[in-house]
Amino acid sequence: MKKFINPFKLLIVLAVFMTSQSSVAGPREQAKFMNDRLVGTNISSVEFESAVSLIAGGNARQAAINITQRPDFYNIKLKTFFAPRTNEGSSNSVDFNDYSATLIGMTRDNIPYTQALTGDIIYTGTAAANSGTYQQDSNDHYKALHSNRVDLSNSSMFIQGTQSGLPGSVINSTQAAGVITTRASAEAFFVAGTNRAMTRAVTMNYLCRDFEQLHDITRPPDKIRKDVSRVKPFLNDCNGCHAGLDGLAGAFAHYNYNTDTSSMEYTAGVVQEKFGINAGVYKRGYETTDDSWVNYWRVGQNSSLIWRATSAVGVTTDPVFGHSAGNGAKSFGQEVASSKAFSACAVKQVFQDVCLRSGNQLSTADHTEIERIAGVFEAANYNYREIWVETALSCMGL
Question: What are phi and psi of 347, to 5 degrees?
Fold first, then answer.
């Protein structure tokens, strides 16, 4: 009897054989990998051969640096990469805006990434970009930058400025907090609701953790507002998120996005009315009277995030209980940006994009490498481009 050969098994054998024959990538394959993952658009033959030569000569780092200086890295790659952070649905199908623009400009100019949550900083087009001027009540300036295909790598077309110095700005330098206080961020996370959405947006995008992952029922409930019911299963459910969440969300008590004027509001010394919504649900709950915040997640299971802003301006730490506290969005941003989790999150996001692995797909070696790159990132004064370079080198098959 003739033995039947399973064609699927044959294909598997052939695939294993072919993989074993090409498991070690050469300089050309490595240069292609770098460009594909760091930019994803066609590269000129001159630039490609330069990358191949650098890699073959033992200078793969410079090859990666050169690729991250290509205009398409800013105009295409980072535009798409940052877009999901700017809206509650985490979609990249949104208009270019001041949130994405600021992160792109900071990357180009090697501005410490911590300023993404703390700085009085914004990027706009110049007169040469023919995109009009920044408007507090419209995103038209950034739509024009996109439709005009303005080169964001060109410092004569796209420049750094201050949020407090923009025409019609409602905040000063002490109230500006990086992308948190951009118009796009306000429209997405300060609109309606109770401003808890902004806290969630920050923990998801800059700590890589949603509230379910921060859930801790051992935290004090004294900052939970009146709109949260205390009936069962409060202690095992609502308290686990709201104790930490409401403690931090007070930082945004003076901010609001006004849908009638299409602009952000800042009411100095006056708590936004939204913080008193549904106050009758639990009348003995916390009443927000100022923009103070407290970080109860410094203690307990979430101490693993390694919070380190003990000496940051505007942040104090309780010597007995270990909780930190401050006032306003800027000091809140400092609290988050100085944590180890902030650095590790930045690396994880790039690692997923470049190496195509995340979550349960990460091996022990991957976790070790992410920690190493996070250390390099911090040592480089939070230079965000350094993450892309180090991650490309890590995954290119050297």
Answer: -70, -45
Q: Which residue type occupies 365? A: A
- Residue 143 burial class via C-beta count within 10 angstroms: exposed 0-12, middle 13-18, buried 19 and up: middle
Distance CA(289)–CA(226), nearest Å, equals: 13
Largest CA distance in the chain: 90
Helix (H, G, I), strand (E, B) or coil at 293: strand
Task: Give me the amino acid identity at 319.
Answer: P
Instruction: Output the CA–CA distances (angstroms, integers) from residue 159 to 102, 132, 154, in the order listed.
Output: 9, 14, 9
Count of other CB atoms within 10 angstroms of residue 239: 21
- Which secondary structure element, helix H or strand E, spans residue 40, and what is its range? none
What is d(CA 296, CA 221) in angstroms, rounded to the nearest whole number? Answer: 10
The size of the chain, in residues, is: 398
How far, in Å, are 118, 195, 217, 221, 307 from residue 249 at the CA level? 16, 7, 18, 14, 17
Instruction: Give the type of residue at 85.
Output: R
Q: Which two tokens stand for residue 175?
A: 């109230």
pTM of this prediction exceeds 0.70:
yes
Which residues on neighbouring strands pair with residue 264, listed in sequence order?
A: 257
Return the axis-axis angle of helices 328-337 and 196-206, rounded to nearest 10°: 20
Q: Would you state the structure tokens that stand for residue 271, as one six-digit string?
A: 């708590």
Q: pLDDT digit of tens for each residue in the chain (398 aa)?
A: 444 445 444 444 444 433 333 446 799 999 999 999 999 999 999 999 999 999 999 999 999 999 999 999 999 999 999 999 999 999 999 999 999 999 999 999 999 999 999 999 999 999 999 999 999 999 999 999 999 999 999 999 999 999 999 999 999 999 999 999 999 999 999 999 999 999 999 999 999 999 999 999 999 999 999 999 888 765 667 888 999 999 999 999 999 999 999 999 999 999 999 999 999 999 999 999 999 999 999 999 999 999 996 666 789 999 999 999 999 999 999 999 999 999 999 999 999 999 999 999 999 999 999 999 999 999 999 999 999 999 999 998 75
* Contact yes or no for 275/194 (Cβ under 8 A): yes
On the 0-12 / 13-18 / 19+ scale of CB atoms within 10 A, 57 is: exposed
- Cβ–Cβ under 8 Å, residues 173 and 181: no
What SS3 state is found at 334?
helix
Residues in a beta bridge with 295: 324
Tokens at 41, concatenated: 């658009």
**Tokens (6 digits) for 220:** 């004090």
